[in-house]
Amino acid sequence: MADELVQRAQKFINTTYSNGATLGISKLEENGQTGWPVMYALTRALQYEMGITSLSDAFGPTTLATIGEKYGKLDETTIPSANFCRIIQSALYCKGYDGGDIDGKYNDRVKAAVVKLHQNMGVDGTYPGSALWPKVVKGLFNMDAYVTVSGGSDSIRSIQQWLNGKYILRKDFYVIPCDGHHSRDVAKSMLFAIQYELGMADGVANGFFGLGTQSGLKSHTVSIGATGVWAMLFTGSMILNKRNVPFGNFTQGVKTEVETFQSFSKLPVTGLGDFQTWASLLVSYGDQSRKGTACDGVTKITPERAAALKAAGYKYIGRYLFNPFPDGDLPEKQIQPGELATIKAAGLRCYPIYQTWSRSADYFSTSQGTRDAFEAIDWARYHGFKAGTTIYFAVDYDAMDGEATQYVIPHFRAVTRTISENSRYNVGIYGARNVCQRVTDAGYASVSMVSDMSSGFSGNLGYPLPTKWSFDQISTITVGSGSGSIEIDNNIASGLDTGQADFDAGVSFDGLDDDLDKDAYRASLLKDVQNYLTSIGVPETGGDGWTDDDWATLGGISTTKACNAVVDADWLFTSLARTLRVRKAPIQASVLWELRKLNPLDFAADAAVKAGTKDDCSTGWGQIFAATAIQARNYCIGEGIINGAGLDPNSKTDLRDVWNKLHDDEDYNIRSVAYTLIWNAELLGIDRPGLNSSAHLTEAVLGRYNGTGSAAEKYGQELMGLYNVLEKYNALSRA
Asked: What per-residue confidence (pLDDT) applies to 602?
């Protein structure tokens, strides 16, 4: 919603500073909405009015120092110009305060707004009155809120206000938000506060959990009866970690909650605010001298290393299912041949991790999640991990909260769907605290392996340990010596996952389809497909009752477009084929044919189902009826080929739900094509399709896709020719 006075502030900037040119920025959009572009523009305008020549978006040390040196504080006696005052008034409006009429006058309305700002920041005791001091100005020119915002906690806000009021005069302490939310800035301010109370001088205190801070905390254990600043710092830290205690004295109720926190975090349950508890409250990795019983690493577990790990008290070892860069710096990152047998023989247990790249937001998507899940299933079976194993999928970067929503959660939704439908494995997540909790809360991970060593990640700072954590990665250490020496990540284990102690023989990849070599074969495959379809009367475009107008209006699919769509989705056909242990060419042939053969009647039928005048029709890439897809899936579920709950093909609700998926979700549709081909064999009373099915069986299964009788026989014969073209190139890629 547009705010008229924020809009006036935007117009003021544009009018006064040549549409931003004077400030080195673009013209502001006059939309009445506060945001960083407005705050940056106001910051630059403030710098310009103070005579700073190198303008910047940042309200940095130079801007702060210049205010102090030139004016000391800002009020009606020191404001140097009307435009300077208008900048202050505009900033107040952008923060939600009454800045007057943006008229260049530091009047009673402005003064009242400043008094309210001081109160909300918690600095009114330090800065009484209506003058703006430099650090308050700095806090005014950003997007921090000083009132409790959506989902915020009043208890956390009281801690934020207390920290501001108590420490604002310290050199390196600046106004932190008072919005009721824990954050990176709040976490760092708490460390500053502890360092100040330990007696560290300005310039020495730095907001980091260093050796001096750790040493000081070891002599500041708090317990029942503690009052004063140390009790407040401790209870404040508990509240910031979402523990339900009052802010203030260390009471019996606090002790009880401390014991609960210690038990949850796998700390010694003392009921005291001792060093290890302080450490776990203040930084994600806690006390890095703690010895865990779990570890993970990128080095092969040999008998000597296994013995060293066991002697050091380790029970659970995390190892990677797959190494996308086997010739890189980490040649042993992937589980090596014979390694799981070594782990088993040593009486240890193993939990698997899946990671390819996953180091930026643009890696994560629904299609990538599906692909990762299929590949993880493949590798888990290859290594012999049994049903019930949890596979940890990595988010190996500092995912912002918005990125978790937009990219990571949809990725894990696809991972979970694929894992749950095509295997008996479970999904875990390996990442920073916030993204682990977000994915778990969304229902797409059962447990979390937490990368708490990355304490500077915004997804760790200000977030408590996830509720369903299984392994907490806190330090990198070396265990053993000589041939038994191994570098590991030292992890605390919660007991929610104990890995696997026994393994199957493993499933070979021999003879399975691989991804098509697109660079080598895309063009020639398309040419062969075009030649074959033309030979049986299917031209590049048109046919099947299409008129030129209909083709242009409805968007008919040419042979080239259909073939390229199938090639682009090759990874999915490959993944399905490998998981189901079938050839992908029959699935590809069915989909390519149905895409190319879409006609005006198909579009009309889709429209009728959408309008509610029909219950079902063939739809999507594979042109499948919802009733057919339901029955095929029910059959595959009954045979243990896939997992899931059966649906009723006579239920209008189930039909519509499945039809929508078939129509809107290409992944779901292609999966359903594969399941239908398998079900076709059952309907025909012949062997299920496999890796070495005869041409006769393949043709029969393909024909049954179009029903029974002579039309189905012709359909099977036509698709068999298309199958042969596709299989030719699939076989070349397998070799």
From this structure: 96
Q: Quote the pLDDT of residue 1.
A: 62
What is the domain count for the chain?
4
Q: Mark whether 471 and 588 lie in a shared domain.
A: no
φ, ψ for residue 80 (rounded to 5)? Answer: -80, -20
**Are residue 573 and residue 610 in the same domain, yes or no?**
yes
Q: Quick count: other Cβ atoms within 10 Å of Cβ 520?
A: 12
How far apart are the C-alpha atoms of 152 and 48, rounded to whole Å? 36
Alpha-carbon Rg of the chain, whole angstroms? 32
> What are the tens digits of pLDDT across the range 99-119?
999 999 999 999 999 999 999
> Same domain, yes or no, for 656 and 612?
yes
pLDDT of residue 3: 86
Q: Are strands 349-354 and 447-450 parallel, antiparallel or unpaired?
A: unpaired
Dihedrals φ, ψ of 100, to 5°?
80, -155
88 within 8 A of 132, measured Cβ to Cβ: yes
- What does the pLDDT read at residue 334? 98
Find the helix or strand (DSSP H, E) in which 453 lies.
Answer: none
* Ramachandran class of 475: left when φ > 0, alpha when ψ lies in -120 to 50, beta otherwise: beta
Measured CA to CA, the distance from residue 158 to residue 169 in angstroms comes to: 18
Tens digit of pLDDT for each residue in 417-432? 999 999 999 999 999 9
Q: Are 545 and 531 members of one domain?
A: yes
587, two tokens: 């699935």
Give the pLDDT confidence of 549-561 residue by residue, as tens digits: 999 999 999 999 9
Query: What H or E segment, with its residue span, contains residue 579?
Result: helix 570-580
Helix (H, G, I), strand (E, B) or coil at 709: coil
Residue 607: helix, strand or coil by DSSP?
Answer: helix
User: For the chain, how are helix, strand and coil distributed in percent, rounded to 5?
Assistant: 50, 10, 40
Write down the pLDDT at residue 494.
98
Distance between CA 687 and CA 162 in Å, rounded? 74
Contact partners, residue 295, CB within 8 Å, separation at least 6: 309, 314, 316, 317, 318, 479, 488, 489, 490, 491
Query: Hey, what long-range contacts does 108-111 have (CB within 8 A, 24 or more apart)?
Result: 110/85, 111/75, 111/76
Listed as ranges, residues in the chain with pLDDT below 50 are none
Note the pLDDT of residue 290. Answer: 98
pTM: 0.94
pLDDT, position 2: 76
- Using the structure block, give the residue that is written with the tokens 């998507």: 365
Question: Does residue 429 sit within a domain?
Answer: yes
Nearest to 530 by CA among 722, 281, 382: 722
Find the domain containing 567 and state its range: 518-734
Query: Between the CA of residue 287 and those of 191, 212, 308, 323, 490, what are the distances in Å?
Result: 15, 14, 23, 31, 12
Name the region of 274 (left: φ>0; alpha: ψ -120 to 50; beta: rest).
beta
Structure tokens at 509: 């990849």
Any idea what the Cα angle at residue 603 is, between residues 600 and 607, rounded to 5°?
Answer: 140
Q: Is 496 exposed, middle or buried (0-12, 13-18, 19+ CB in 10 A)?
A: middle
- What is the bridge-based pairing of β-strands 426-431 and 447-450? parallel
**232 with 175, same domain?**
yes
Question: CA torsion sign, 223 to 224 to 228 to 229?
Answer: positive
Cα(420)–Cα(400) distance, integer angstroms: 27
Distance CA 27, CA 41 (A): 9
| Separation of alpha carbons 578 and 556, rounded Å | 32
Q: Would 288 be classed as within a structural domain? A: no
Cβ atoms of 617 and 603 closer than 8 Å: no
List, in order, residues 6 or more apart from 175 with CB less than 8 Å away.
121, 123, 135, 136, 138, 139, 144, 164, 168
